[in-house]
Design brief:
about 10% strand, 2 domains, Alpha-Beta Plaits, two-stranded antiparallel ribbon, two-stranded antiparallel sheet
Length: about 130
Amino acid sequence: MREAGGAVRVAKNRLAKIALEGTPAESIGDLLKGMTVLAYSEDPVAAAKVAEAFAKDNDKLVILGGAMGGTALDPAGVKAVAAMPSRDELIAQIVSSIGAPASNIAGAIGAPASNIAGILSTIEDRAEAA
């Protein structure tokens, strides 16, 4: 979790509920029953990805839910968030999609020039033949 930019904490449920009061994630306080572990990160996808991957390999870890901002997530919601690309992956996709149109524009601008050069060459060859 640390490598992904997140952290994992084991806390008493009563203290965790008090800490969650007044925060957007207050709605997950009802999930805090029995032995619980809290995983969190700045990138909302990172914690979900790491927790989901760890839960696949360890049957004793059961994901009860989570929160993304003010939205409470059920286990299926956490799984859906874990399937999303991370913040860094999204930034890379955005940068590549921004760069792609520029290369397409450069290609489109260069293509007519090569077509014009080809046409002029053909006209020149016809003029020489005549």
